[in-house]
Amino acid sequence: MREAMRQSLKFFVVLVAIIALSACKIVIEDGSTGKTDAGVSGDNDRIAALIDKTFDAQLFPEIKTKAQDFETFRKAIAADIDKAGQRFGHRGAGQGAAWNFSIKGTGTIVDGKLDSRARTFSVDMDDDANADLLIQLGPVVKGTALRDFASFYNFNDFRDQIEFAKLGRALNDRATASIEVDGSGYIGNQIEFVGVLTLSSSTTRILVTPITLQVAP
User: Fold this and answer.
1) Of the four listed, 17, 60, 94, 191, which is most buried by Cβ atoms within 10 Å?
2) pLDDT, tens digit, 9 for 90 and up, residues 128-139
3) Does residue 26 sit within a domain?
4) Preceding omega of 217 cis (within 30 degrees of 0)
């Protein structure tokens, strides 16, 4: 009798265990969230979409609207670069960042470096036969003045410094993609431009990234 009761109890316990297991969902935890990485793998697509949305609609008109005539700009920074920056410049992200300015003007090409990927024109802006600035022609462009001049690209809106840096490079690529400079017969030609630059002091070399550029004989 006791043996029969023990067998019945054993069977009942096993049955309950089977029912309990069948009602459970087995989950294997491996530390993965199961989410698609929203980091570096999507940077290029996100930045391309952002530039498509903002370059022509926001960046281009902001640079043209705020562009100072070169001579006005030069006098202002010689007097006080910080006051000039507060009046018509924009400071980059970070403590002690340099000022970014937008300028426009017409000058004479006095030299050209066209045999590298970092092509430039040296431009005389005051008819003294000496170069007053360099205009970058790409495809390699130094600096991130296009990004840092804009009032609407905020570092805090980006994942990290890497993604923010990619934005700067992509803007440079977009601005210089249509510049076609072939041969070497440009010395003495007039050049008209609108562009941006970064300055940490009034004596820093002026290196312009253009958004418009026209060369005339």
Assistant:
1) 191
2) 999 999 999 999
3) no
4) no
